[in-house]
Amino acid sequence: MRDSFVRSGALVVALAIAGTATAANQEAKKPENPMLTAWAGPYGGVPAFDKIKVEQMQPALEAAMKISLGEIDKVANDPAAPAFENTIAAMERSGRTLDRASNIYGIWSSTMNSAEFQPVEREMAPKLAAFYDEITQNEKLFKRIEAVYNAPDKAKLTPEQQRLAWIYYTNFVRSGAKLDENAKKRMSEINQELAGLFTTFSQNVLADETDHYLVLENEADLAGLSQSLRDGAAGAAKSKNLEGKWVITNTRSSVDPFLTYSTRRDLREKAWRMFVNRGDNGDAHDNNATITKILKLRAERAKLLGYATHAHYTLENTMAKTPERALQLMEGVWPAAIARVREEVADMQKIADSEGTNITIEPWDYKHYAEKVRKAKYDLDQNEVKQYLQLEKLREGMMWVAGELFGFSFTPVTNVPVYHADVRVWEVKNRNTGKLVGLWYFDPYARPGKRSGAWMNAYRNQERFDKDIPTIVSNNANFVKGKPGEALLISWDDAETLFHEFGHALHGLSSNVNYPTVSGTNVFRDYVEFPSQLLEHWLSTPEVLSKFALHYKTGEPIPQALRDRIKKASTFNEGFATTEYLASALVDMKLHLAGDQTIDPDKFERETLEQLHMPKEIVMRHRTPQFLHVFAGDGYSAGYYSYLWSDVLTADAFGAFVEGKGPYDADVAKRLRDNIFAVGNTIDPADGYRKFRGRDAQVDALMKKRGFPTN
Ligand SMILES: [Zn+2]
Fold it and tell me: Is the pTM of this model over 0.90?
């Protein structure tokens, strides 16, 4: 289970106001700003990343908002009677200039978030929020959408058009289109204030990830670390002008390996505390007061819209439908997870005791001793596995999988500008017909100003209602760059993440719909992680391992004996993984079910975890003051459960291959493409799943996948 973000045109699609044709004449007046011009060049046009400058962003966004409002005004004031074509389709055509500009702005926000960019973000976030409210609160526009949605002849529209009309209507209502003037005004104030708070929250986390780091002074401080970890730490020190020393930066990709391998318990504790206290240090970057405000505003907004809580409001537009159903799933899995943690800790304690160290397992010991148990119990050494996991070979492997399952071919291209020298681009084609499918941008390495973790982003959605427009997607990760010219070796866990993000990319690339709002990964939040989690399964297929898991020195494929041990250990540490995740998901849901009381986040977190009997050896995967999924935007708020919900589908869906002719069964793959990957949000996902599987998903497969007992 990877808990990365899907950005997919975040700003625009959040309100389902993707849209339209290029306002060519307005653009012609501002040729000097490359953020505003239509994307030119091959592949239906590509972003002119080589021409973008931060100082262009604010003027571009402001001009693009103006253009959009003009276009929308035209739709709202159309003298013709409201019809699908002149209202919904016209909305899909509108806002293209802003789509492009805000996508580039979003790329900078997540991957090039420099000191120069941050003031722009602080300024623009509330303005963009106000802009979207201005659209959803446009009375005339809403009346037209409502008329189309309620039209007696709606049945004459295609099913995709009917669903699109429903999405527009629902999103407008959920954004307050039916409220009275005063309530609308308040909604807009709330949204603007929230946008500012989200920016504050994420900039605070980024500041703590950048400003705090652990300096390793000498050989003794490096005890237990492999040469590649030492090299990475030396590189990090160099970039902080600490040449000759070593630095563990305050991100997961840097701290996790340190916690796993360092034999210096005192330094492990330091690194652990630094990492879990991000946003919670009682200083200028402390997020607690910001969280209290965000929760209060969300509760007030939910009330305004007629919902009991923010969780009820959010869950209405998901597969789960209600917070109760999401909680039921989480609370159903929780006891098995914490029971497994007790077993895992007992195994670790046994090893610690046998070493005569006289310690009790603490959170900063967990990963370190888990690794020892892995070796003792399964004879599996992650460093041994890693020798076979070369980033670039695995990338080739996942592209090969995409060929087998989806019929895609990938060819690297260099005729496309990139925003950073580390970014590479591939063109994707249908290998049977030769037709262009889209572009895939790959930005694999960590750097200052880049958000930690891994995620997929759609720069442009696939569509074809006016003309065929191919999608542009990207995968982003934070691998620590090794020495130039040497193979970058990654962990098994990171290899799964790589496949996961590529699953999101394939979801975008497979899209075969008419309208951009329902395209690609623009699906329910608790469904979007299903295609991505599903693709993780192909990493461990014999085909991928024998062709692409090659030793970085000898080129030999990973031996069968080692594969067997990996398989045997596949549910190892699942107690930890499920518990750290579920603790975060449960706290998220409970924070948003608490209504409009004033919440002290630290206290709420502590008390909720006590009630849950959270094992003291584990901390939440994302503690509240650094929980970007939930407080850097609305997207995953009361929605972190989505990964578990999606994994129920994932585990059950892979069963279709197992019951068939295996992971490369062409018939099952076709059903998967036709009913899941290609359809975007044009159908109800529950229906799509039933068509693929012949029935609803069953939770047993999830329990089995995680090695938990089934009832
Ligand atoms: Zn994901």
Answer: yes
